[in-house]
Design a protein that fits this description.
With about 130 residues, this protein is of the alpha/beta class. It has one helix at about 95-110; strands at about 1-5, 20-25, 30, 40-50, 55-65, 75-80, 115. It folds into two domains: about 1-65, no CATH class; about 75-115, no CATH class. The chain has a five-stranded mixed β-sheet, with no helix packed on it.
Length: about 130
């Protein structure tokens, strides 16, 4: 279930009359059916119990109407570290080359960032796994 805007009223259709709703919010407090119009932004757990004893649950996402833009937008460069070439690093990029690129891109192009490929394995894994993207 996805709801846009924290103040928006939530109407759940197709529930049998007398279904009890219980919402466990991401922030901790539990809410009842009466509180559905006051849900905070976040990912919550919605549980329903029908009068005949059937139970159901679903993830309830309360998203903002719009994602706020950061105050200052920026641009930058994406580079694979191994693709940086310099005579100093023997034609295979190292962190010194990355520092030079970052300084140059900010100084010459007013770039706000330099994004690089993962430099280390993202998830610890077996030493024989060759992929940093596991």
């Amino acid at each position: 279930v996805v709801v846009r805007g924290a103040a928006e009223s939530v109407v759940l259709r197709g529930l049998p009359e007398g279904t009890a709703l219980h919402i466990e919010t991401e922030q901790g407090p539990a809410l009842s059916h009466a509180d559905l119009g006051r849900l905070p932004l976040g990912v919550h757990r919605l549980r329903a119990r029908a009068p005949d004893g059937r139970d159901a649950e679903a993830t309830l996402v309360v998203a903002p109407e719009r994602v706020p833009q950061p105050p200052d937008r920026s641009h930058g460069f994406l580079v694979q570290l191994y693709s940086l070439l310099s005579a100093r690093s023997w034609g295979m990029g190292d962190l010194g080359d990355l520092a030079e690129l970052a300084a140059w891109s900010g100084r010459v192009h007013s770039a706000g960032f330099v994004q690089v490929n993962p430099l280390h394995a993202a998830v610890p894994g077996a030493p024989t796994d060759p992929s940093p993207y596991r």
